[in-house]
Fold this sequence. Notes:
mainly alpha, two-stranded antiparallel sheet, about 60% helix
Amino acid sequence: MKKYFKSTVYVIFVIVTFLALAKSFMVYQNPFDVYENPLVWLALIGFILVVVLKETVNVMAINKATELQNEKLGIVPEEENAWLKKLLQSWTSSKDIDSEEEIILDHNYDGIKELDNNLPPWWVYMFYATIVFAVVYLVRFHVLDGDNQIVEYDKAVAQAKAALKEYKSSAPATDFITAENVTLLTDASDLSRGKAVYNLNCASCHLADGGGQIGPNLTDEYWILGGGIKNVFTTLLNGGRDGKGMISWKKTLKPADMQKVASYVISMQGTTPAKAKAPQGEIWVNPEAKVESESIATEVVE
């Protein structure tokens, strides 16, 4: 009665757990993505291990019971793993201990004798394979003048450049924003996105109003690494000063989001935060604006 009860409980456990795991997988949009639902995958692996362990214990118990029964009845079972021993013997070409006298060499040293065993077939076949490989290699690269590693590398680089060029022709331009081509965004939707990313990642150091806390004040005209959209984007991309300052965000934020955050930071210039931190760095003057003003002054003089 106890045996049937355990079996019933085990069957119910397997069915209920399987249905629960199946339901859990159906909840996710990408059910086979380990990163999206790691706990479900851990539960699945644990369930499989429990089932395998249970069946292993059952097989071991049955084998043990059979062994005891045969011992009680005086039945001598056939040698276990006979096929494995036969396979090993065929791949080593070795003689049994009882037959070793046939291959003992005549000479001996201080009573120590030597067996004249054949080389293992697997070793001989591998040796023949190396000869075949050497012949093919010789013909391929020295007779037919095949591509060497340098030529193969150059071809692989050319293919990669062609694939990159094709990807750039079809991919969104926002995927290729750099410090050289980044531009200031003023659209309300872009600044709204920049503000959301700023509040999530930057406000802890610069405060939500940009007044500065651990990080510097972002609302005044003083900058440690330079102001303007290009400098701010570069700081987000590469981080601040070595050993201190802001970390690099290039592994966390996409270039498009960094452009929007940088634009939002620029839009905070001139605002009045609740608790403004003392100025840090130097007053930054836009060199493009300076060049433009000099050009206008030259035209006026002329």
